[in-house]
Amino acid sequence: MENVVTQADGVSIIMIPDHLDVNTSPHIKNTLAEVLKTSDVIELDFSYTALVSSAGLRVLLQAQKNVQVSGKSMTLKNISSDVMEVFTLTGVTKILTIA
Q1: Where are the domains of the chain?
Q2: pTM for the predicted model, two decimal places
Q3: Which of 4, 10, 39, 61 has its CA 20 to 30 A from that of 71?
Q4: Burial class (CB within 10 angstroms; exposed 0-12, middle 13-18, buried 19+) of 16
């Protein structure tokens, strides 16, 4: 998987792949851990994401926990209606910051 992180105005933007699942979530987990070391503000861009599996949800929830512990912020943006439905049905909309 190619580099998925860009910087803009002090914000680290991570592009989430088309499927955040068991195959891609380890890479995103590692990317989030690295970005968290150097950035105070993280945005996850779901512009191209069509599917989020339970493995992907685990990565997002663990990242949110790590962000909160470190006093930083993470926002999810550009979420499709299908992915938002998964977030709503699983209740993660109450935990994650979604713009």
Answers
A1: 5-94
A2: 0.92
A3: 4
A4: buried
